[in-house]
Amino acid sequence: MKIAQIAPLYEAVPPKLYGGTERVVHFLTEELVRLDHDVTLFASGDSKTSARLSAIVPEALRLKKCEDSLAPHILQIEEVMDRANEFDVIHFHTDYLNFPFTNNLVVPHVTTLHGKLSIPELQPLYNKYRHQPVISISNSQRQPLPQANWVGNVHHGLPCNLFRPGKGKGEYLAFLGRVSPEKGLENAIAIAIAAGIPLKVAAKIDKADKEYYEENIRELFEHPLVEYVGEVNEKKKEKFLGNAMALLFPINWEEPFGMVLIEAMACGTPVIAFNRGSVPEIIEDGQNGFVVSTKKQAIRALDQLHKIDRMVVRHSFEEKFSSARMANDYVRIYEKLAEKTRSKVKSIYPLGERKLSAI
């Protein structure tokens, strides 16, 4: 198939800095190319890809002074629309920005929604654009928007060769993510201290979360059982997660997916996670970790870690959360969309006339 992947322009693909969506787009694009699809990636010019690269801006917007980040995205979507007939399917990862452009587009297209959907302002938007085909990254993510035109659910995936499984010999617990209220770092620190087990924190402190860090976290980092190691890149994640006894994921919000969960699983590391958002779709209680509801339950789960086979955790990742599985899931959706479009065109033009722009 001739496939267009449209990434946000805030980070390169793959991202040089923090960028979950851009990482997923990278893994998906590379896997689609490996499967012999003809892929064009619309992204910033500093992106690295095996696909054809079409760039509106020379570098990621976060790496330079950009007063209006919306303008380049509008130009990018307009470029995609100008070239729409070149593709069998167009896959957007730019949230709802493309909706006004693609509302009457006949060329098969779909948008994966990567973020939080429980925002009040989204209700009238999805009432208006209820026919736009969208894909969720977890069934939990869908709940605030039952009126949306859900055409599939695809869990994220990672390349199987990205991380090797570790043995968990580090005698510490791990926290990986952002220092922000929703990620539950305070809960993780409380669990580790109560259990008497060292906790290593690899986390980004964003400017937006600086006040939260100063008021709630800074003093906690002074505890002798807590070690803040800063941000870790892809190479360092393998050792950080692979040596950990377990990953703590005591979130305070309805996480749409949680890439760190499958990163830990790829390293053979069990996860102890709060039962919110996508967690029960990813963690099988007693198999690749433990799903708990309270800090007390998390502490008790630590005593059960010896029952988890780390190779079973790794095999669970390979079976359910590889980038190959993710790409194949998307291709099946692409094919269904293409078949639906062919049927629609035939019904409108029974004599064979074909129009693939707007009707």
TrEMBL record:
Pfam name, any one: Glycos_transf_1
Name of the protein this chain belongs to: Glycosyltransferase involved in cell wall bisynthesis
Domain of life (superkingdom): Bacteria
Keywords: Transferase
Organism annotation: Flavisolibacter ginsengisoli DSM 18119
Glycosyl transferase family domain: residues covered: 168-307
Residue span(s) of domain Glycosyltransferase subfamily 4-like N-terminal: 18-129
GO molecular-function term, one example from the UniProt record: glycosyltransferase activity
Taxonomic path: Bacteria, Pseudomonadati, Bacteroidota, Chitinophagia, Chitinophagales
Coiled-coil region: none
InterPro entries on file: Glyco_trans_1, Glyco_trans_4-like_N
